[in-house]
Every structure is written in C-alpha cells, then in structure tokens.
Amino acid sequence: MKHLHRLLRMSLVCALALSGVIAHAQSKSKPSGDKSGASVPRVNFKEVKLKNGLRVFLVEDHSAPVVSLALIYDVGSRNEKQGRTGFAHLFEHMMFQGSENVGKSEHFILIETNGGQMNGTTNEERTLYFETLPKNQLDLMLYLEADRMRGLDISKENLDNQRNAVQEERRLRLDNQPYGIMSEKFGETIYDNFAYKHSVIGSMEDLSAASVEDVREFFRVYYAPNNAVLALVGDFKTNQALARVKTYFESIPSQPAPSRVDVAEPEQTSERRFTTDDQLARLPLLNIGYKGYVGGGADAYALQVLGTVLGGGQSSRLYQKLVRDSQLALSANSFASVRRGPGAFRISATVAPGKKYEDVEAAIYEEIARLQKEPIADWELEKAKQAARRGAVGSRQSSLGLAINITEGVVAWNDPNYANTRLEKIMAVTKEDVQRVAREYLQPTKRTVGVAIPKGTSMAAPPPAANQ
Amino acid sequence: MHKTNSFLKRILAALSLAALLAAPILAQAPPGQQQERPSSKGAVIKGKAPVNKDTLKVKLPKPYETKLGNGLQVLILEDHKLPNFSMQINILSGGLADSDQEVGTAQYVATMIREGTKTRSSKQIAEDTDKLGATLFASTGLSSTTSTVLASGLTDNFDQILELFADVILNPSFPADELTKLKTRALGQIRLQRSQPGFLAQEKFSKVMYGSHPAGRFALTAEQIQRFTPEMLQKFHQAHYRPNNAIFAIVGDVKPAEVVAKLEKTFASWKPGDAPKTEIPKVADTGPGKIYLIDRPNSAQANLVLGTLSIERTDPDYFALEAMNQVLGGGGAARLFLNLREDKGYTYGAGSGVSSAKYRGTFRASTEVRQEVTKGAMDELMKELKRIRDEKIPVDEFELSKRTIIGGWALQLEFPQAALQNAITQKLYGLPADYWDTYPQKIAAVTPDEAQRVARKYIDLDKLQIIVVGDAKKLADTLKQFGKVEIYNSEGKLITPAETATGAGSRSGN
C-alpha cells in the first residue's frame, strides 16, 4: 500500500483544489464555557514586511529537523477574464516550467531528490505553493521560490506541454468522472457574477486559447512580492532565517497593486433548478445550495455549526434519516463553504438504487424545516464544537500545515491567527444562532437545485441490486 | 495506512550534488531538439540552485513495548507536541482468513462492530463518537492479513474514547436489522464503484495477477454480500478478536504507565483464545502477457495499468526493487513522469510502484491519457520498461534518485505515527529489530547492477499484463498492436475473446 501512497503523492504534482473552499477546517484556541477542557495556544510568530511589500511570517519549531514554506499569491480563478477560464491554474503549472536560474521541471527534481515534498494548488481565491525539506535545505527552498517570483522563462513549447497536462487534469477530475460535469454546472447556475460562476479548471476552449502573452501579463500583474504572503515554519533560528529571506526576496521589485475583483452577487429571488444528463453515472446525484451569506460575517460560523449538525459524519441528521433509516440515499452530507465573497450552504446526496431523487429532496427539506422549527440538541452543539477543537489542534501537526494556515488566514482575512479566531467564533455559537440562520438563509427562494441523471449505456442494469 | 514510509533518511557519502546535477542524468536537450533518451526533454537542469550536499542523520523514535496479562501486545509512543492521540488494535486476521465460501466475513465484522454493542445502538455509537470529536472506524481489505480498529481524538477525551473503542471491540452485538441495512447500502455502493475507471482497472488487475488465489479478492458481488448472517460475523469475531491475536498501538500525548494501567482495566474481560492461523497458499505465476480492455462507454480517458508479480515483503530483493522503482516511476523526478507528462504532455500523472505482503505483491505502472494518444503512451511506457531492464542506470541518476528516499527520511520525524506504523510492520513481518535504523543504508548500498538485475527479474515483459479501461470502440484496434486483446464489459463479463477482438461490435447498443 505504501507504494500506492507514493504514486498518489506523485500524481498530485501541481494539484488543483476544485473545492473552492478556503481555510475552513483549521484553528486553535480555547473553548469557552463548555465542559471541553484544553485550550489551544496562539501561534508565536514573527511578522515582517519587506521593503518590496512581501509579508513574511516565521515560526520557530524545533520538534523535527525540517522546514516548511508556504507562499500564497493573492490571485485565483475569481481574477480571471472572460475567455480565459482556468488560466490562474494553468499559470500555476507554468511556475514549474523554469525561471532565470532554474530549468523546466528542475524545481520539483531538486525538491524531491533532496528528500522534500512540494506542490502548487489553485482555487477561486488564491494560488498556493509549498514545500517541506530537511532543515539543511532552507536556502534551496528560498532560492527556488525567489527565482520564480523574480521572473519566468516562458516558451510556447512549455506552455503547450502544460496546457496538455492541465487538459488531462480536467479529463481526469471532471470529464471522465461520474458527476464531474455536475459540479461545474452547479457553480455556473448558483452564481451570477463571473468571478465565481466559472470553474477553477476552466473550459477546454479557454485553455486552448491561452497564449504566452497572457502568461507574461498575468505574471506582471499578480506575481509581485506585494501581492504575496510567505510563511516559514520549522527548525531554524528566526533571525537567521529572516536574514536569508531578505537576501533572496527583498530585491525583487514590487508592482502596482492589482485592481480588486468585484465578487458581489445580486440577491437571488427565486429558486433555480437544472438537471444534467450524466453519461458516466449509474445513480442520480442531488446537489442543493443556498446562497446569501458572506464568508467573514458572523452568520458564517453559525452556518458551519449547522452544516455539521445536519450533514457532518454518521451521527448527522441526514445520515441517520436518509442513509440509515429510510435508505433513500447512499450518502448525504452538508457544509457551509467559506470564502471571502458570497458563500453557499451546500447539501449533496447520492440517490439509492430504485429510489427517487424527488423523495430524497423532500426528505432533506423536512430536515431543514425541523431545524427551523426547533433548536438543535445540546449534544449536537457539543459535537460541532469538539470537531472545531479537534481540527484546530490537528492543523498544527505538521510544519507545513501551520505554514499554510498562516498564509491562508492572512490572505483571506488579514489574520495570521485566523485558526484561533475561527475556533473562538465557533465556540461562541448558540443553539439560537443555529436556528436563526436556518430560518434566515435556508429559504426556497435562495436555493439552487441540480440533479445528475444517469444516461450511460451502463444504466441497462436493473435498478434494484438484490438479484444481480 | 502506511502513512509516511515513502521518505527516508540519512547519510549518503559526500555526493557532489552540483556535479550530479550538471551530469546528463535527466538530460537537458534544449527544447525543440529531438532526443535519443525518452525522458530527456522533460527537464532542463541548470544546476545553479544552492543544494546542501549532506543528508541529515536522524533516528526514528522507538515505542515502549509491553504485554498485558491476557497476552495483548502493547506499543506506546509518546509525543507531547499536541494534546491529541491516535490508537489502534491490529487483529492478526483479516480478509485472507475467510474461506472462499465466506469471502468478506472479516470485512463485515469490522464494519459491523460500529453498528451495535450490548449496550449501545448504531445511532448511539455514532453520537458518542462525534460528540467526543473522535474518529472511530474499523476495516480490513478482502485480501488483508490484519483487521484494524482505530480511534483518535483529543487527550482530554481519552478515557471516554478508550471506553468506546473497547466496547466495539469486546461487545459487538451484530444486530440483524443493522446488517440488513448495511447490505442494502453495500449493494448500492457496488453500483457506484462500477462507474469509477480506477475501480474497474484495479479490480481486473487483482484478478489477472492472482487468479483464484485469495490475494485476488478485491470487491464483493451481490451474492456474496447477501449471504452474511449475524451468526457468521459472531463466529468470526469469537474466533479471531482475541488479545493474543492482536497488537495494540498508541501514539500521542499519553504516558506509558497510565495507558498500561487503563488498558489492563479496560481489557480485563478479554480472554485469550486459539485464533485459527491464516494459511496463505503460494502465489502462482501469471500466464503469458495479455491485454485486458474494459469497455467503459463515453470515457474521456484511457486508464493504462501495466504490471507483473513482485515479491514477498521479507524478500532480500526488497531494497533493490524500491531503489529501481524510484528511478522509473517514484515521483515527479522519475522517468515515467518526466517522459509522459513533462515531455510528451500525454497525461496529468504517470508513475509506478511495488507492493509486497505476506504473499507476492505486484509491480505496477500506470497513467491516464486522452484516448487519442493511447498508442503514444503505450509506446513510451514500454520504452521505459525496456530501458530500465536493458540499460544500467547511470550512476549519477541513481545516486540522486536514492537520495529522494534517504534525504526524505528526516521528514518522518514530524509524523510519529509513521514511526509507530514502522514498528507494527516490523512485528507483523518479523523483520529484524534494527530494520528501520538500517533502512536508508540499505537503499544507499543498492548498486546499478543490482537494480538492473531486479528490473530484469521482476519486470518480466513476457508476463507483463496490461489493463486498459476506456471506450472500447476507440481503443481496441490501437491495443491490438501491443498484443492479444480481450474485451470485457464494466460488469466484468468477457464480451470479445482475444482471437476475434475488434473495435466494432465490442459495444452493444447506445
């Protein structure tokens, strides 16, 4: 098995985060009130802003002889132009295709053959690059990141090569997967503003249209030190590490700040529905989303608790009712997506063989009505809070996890301690808050419903599986 | 499960990295220039980045070991960095313990222990787990030698989580109504699985590698699912879930003396017994190589899997195979990736791996490509398999590649559960006590000659089995250029035997 793991790790090179959910499962802080005991201390970091505007965070951690670097550029698919969907992610791939002093693919060859791990990942909000190495390779990681922040060596041939890789990535993750198209179409239906309306992976057509000139321009506008946040966590002396960071990064010139993206959504006033024929699926899939809240707002935390109560884990209402009791669904879950712009409360259920999606949908609405009518149970609130504590602690297990948390928090919320902040906010949520947000946001007029209907030849099989 | 075994540590005598990087290993043919060596266009090495040529010498921590009065082996690894812990019990019987007539019993036992105990209903177990912020699950593979029950959480909930963990291990009640529900869910799940190309490929791969050997068990059929009864599960549990047939292991913010005292108390009622020993038959060689095409209409890609049988975990060739595979397909710096992705642009990922167990494992190379380039991808895969057999790996390339494993050893220190898992593996396979301490040296000591020897021995091209999942009408003719093709539908049924395989007629209706 372990070798499969390695294969998996390999296949993630330049992975793309399709989920579009940022930094929502991490934090550390003390619980307030409840019986839950241990607190999670704040991270002790040093923050420095270099002359060129690069924000740097350093955390000394001598628990293992390693060092991790996370570097976020504040650009994601929401910054893309019409006709260039998927470009932020394609660009991320180009960051591994060479710069002045580093050749094509040399970046990951150097990291891997020195015992390290690395990747890049893009979502709606940001583009993240990271690496972990044994501590004696600190200079290597700083050099590699600084060299490609300074400038890229872009060729048409390399762009064509990575365009192919990214188009295969789209096929692998979307076009060749059951329900892959559903996820893209859902985003296109629920959002009105182009910023969030299109998928992170982008259309084949737009990927084909991307040019070397587009790559140059994107680099110039977004890949500047003043549009980036860097975190370094690990086994070093802070002052020495900071000096190295300055040596490598401080002379990179800053650029005019990119213009801000307008992500505002007009208010939704009626339900939206669509069905999509899925050639690869064998069972229907139901997706429901409620739009109307913003990531950083107070209600977003109560909605996260609501998401856990309704559809998180086997004790959740959806699992117990739809999957275990009535057996209408094979799986059912819910969560509140959190991003800087408008988020969505999402519910998803795979319809069981021989059952109707209409019945699944009705059962989900029944559970929502119950959440609106009655307060949740004490144990359900406790469950959500314990899950938040657990996540907060776990997010610090590795130097890389912590480095990423810090950069995500700063870019999204200007809060390096967002992890602590989030836990505090979740711990402060009351049963009344949960009921209130259920009433306010889970309204039919704010709803988008998508259904994937199996249409492949494989559906020839009879619906109930009992006597196959 | 084997989390971090893939990176390793330690001294590699003074390698001049700068010199290595300048050497022709990953080849730096300038873009546009045709090259002889397949991976040469995938990378350009400028060799200017500052590399520290030393590798860190690290030693992984070892767990405290003891045995309870009832025979339960206990491994405890303290790690106080964070207030959390993870514990598991490995029952030394898994899916392989089932007879052919009762395939899957071990798996259903593991799944069902969360579905009811003498004092808790399925729902109560779910609630108790979640309100403690805990993780609790149990599993075994159909071809595994062990079953694992795992629980983790925050230290301040340790006592309650331990109680819950012990309850599902000691007192499962296998309620008939929950078993009926589980079967219904499982019958739905096996339909969902058949829509996944990766599932179809792996299912066929297991079958082709192992035939009727129990190691080839991969997924249950509806008939097999239907025949489980509470009595069957009870019987398996009674026989195999015994303290003297188990290893308990914990890592995290705990103190050994306290843990042992709590375990003695919690597991006091667990009585030893004579668990039947799992007899594993020898794995027979596969027949001559063949191509198995699984028709998945409307596929957007072809999944290509090429493989052979490899070795048992304790085989002395283990290290040479590992080191050889690292060069061929062990990551983003390996030949398959640099060739098929970075040079040819056929795929998002390509790689290879060696598995090994108490029975012979497999060597397996795989990639997913758009169907139009299937021929090109097959050509390159075959070229790389031939090259690693026919040409000795250049010393510079080999030293760098081994450094991936040796240099990465230090990264495991961030994940103490990796060290604990190593200790469990050492016990399960009866490996020497210093096995993990000497692992990096053993990788370092592999020579290009040995790597070539094991490549020739195990990547036996005459026995190379090729599994392809995709749209048969687009792929059949192409694949016939590489050997005899048998076409199956996605239910696993042979629809076109090798002799008459053609693209046309491979698909009925649309």
Query: Strand content of the residues of chain A, in percent?
Result: 15-25%
Percent helix range of chain B: 25-40%
**Largest sheet properties of chain B:** 7 strands, mixed
Mean pLDDT of chain B: 90
Kindly, what is the distance between the CA atoms of the first and last residues of chain B, rounded to a whole number of angstroms?
41 Å
Most extensive chain-chain interface: A-B, 105 and 114 residues
Lateral arrangement of strands in the main beta sheet of chain B:
10-12-8-13-7-14-15
The Rg value of chain B, from CA coordinates, equals: 25 Å
Roughly how much helix do the residues of chain A carry, as a percent range? 40-55%
Shape-level CATH architecture of the largest domain in chain B: 2-Layer Sandwich
Quote the average pLDDT of chain A: 90
Write a structural description.
The complex is a heterodimer of chains A (468) and B (510). By secondary structure, chain A is of the alpha+beta class. Chain A folds into two domains: 248 residues, Cytochrome Bc1 Complex, Chain A, domain 1, CATH 3.30.830; 185 residues, Metalloenzyme, LuxS/M16 peptidase-like (Cytochrome Bc1 Complex, Chain A, domain 1, 2-Layer Sandwich), CATH 3.30.830. Chain A contains 17 helices and eleven strands. Chain A has a six-stranded mixed sheet with strand order 1-2-6-3-5-4, with helices on both faces. In chain A, a hairpin with a 4-residue loop joins strand 4 and strand 5. Chain B has two domains: 203 residues, Metalloenzyme, LuxS/M16 peptidase-like (Cytochrome Bc1 Complex, Chain A, domain 1, 2-Layer Sandwich); 216 residues, Metalloenzyme, LuxS/M16 peptidase-like (Cytochrome Bc1 Complex, Chain A, domain 1). In chain B, helix 12 crosses helix 16 and helix 13 packs antiparallel against helix 15.
